[in-house]
Amino acid sequence: MALTAWAQEAKAKREAWYKIERLEAQLAKANERIEELEHYNLRLANESHAKSLEIDSANKSVIETHVKALQSLLNKKCPVSGYVIRDKESREIIVEELEQLLKEQSTDVR
User: Fold this and answer.
1) What distances in angstroms separate CA 12 from CA 4, 7, 23, 104, one per listed residue?
2) Which residues form a coiled coil (predicted)?
3) Which residues are CB-neighbours of 101 under 8 A, at least 6 positions away?
4) pLDDT digit string, tens, across residues 24-65
5) Is the CB of residue 93 less than 8 Å from the CB of residue 84?
6) Beta strand 92-94 with 84-86: parallel, antiparallel or unpaired?
7) Which pLDDT does position 76 carry in this prediction?
8) pLDDT tens figures, 66-99
9) pLDDT of residue 44
10) CA 85, CA 69: separation in Å to the nearest integer?
11) Cα separation, 68 vs 52, whole angstroms
12) Taking a C-beta distance cutoff of 8 angstroms, is the pair 88, 100 a contact?
């Protein structure tokens, strides 16, 4: 009877060790997956940042182009200072505001 109790205890310990080994293997796989996901997340963050910089650059280019168009418009010595004129997109633009914008831009360049 003592042998049976000892055999049962040995069997229980062996099963516990197998279970621990399986759990350790699962933990190792989970840690590998976490590391893969962290690298993937970092790559996505870098790509997102790069796209954001591209968008900022494109927006700046659009603004610069718009300002150049407004400069061209003002260089035609528009006699309607203080009145409303319309640009190609039919947005109302106050000539005085354009002049202020050009002054601000010229101070930003310096």
Assistant:
1) 12, 9, 16, 81
2) 20-47
3) 67, 70
4) 999 999 999 999 999 999 999 999 999 999 999 998 888 878
5) yes
6) antiparallel
7) 63
8) 777 776 766 665 555 545 455 554 455 556 666 6
9) 97
10) 13
11) 24
12) no
- Rg over alpha carbons for the chain, rounded to the nearest Å, is 36
pLDDT attached to residue 37: 97
Q: Please state, in angstroms and rounded to a whole number, the distance separating the CA atoms of residues 38 and 34.
A: 6
Structure tokens at 103: 């002054």
Token digits of residue 88: 């190609």
Helix axes 2-75, 95-109, angle to 10 degrees: 120
CA distances from 100 to 26, 80, 97 (A): 66, 15, 5
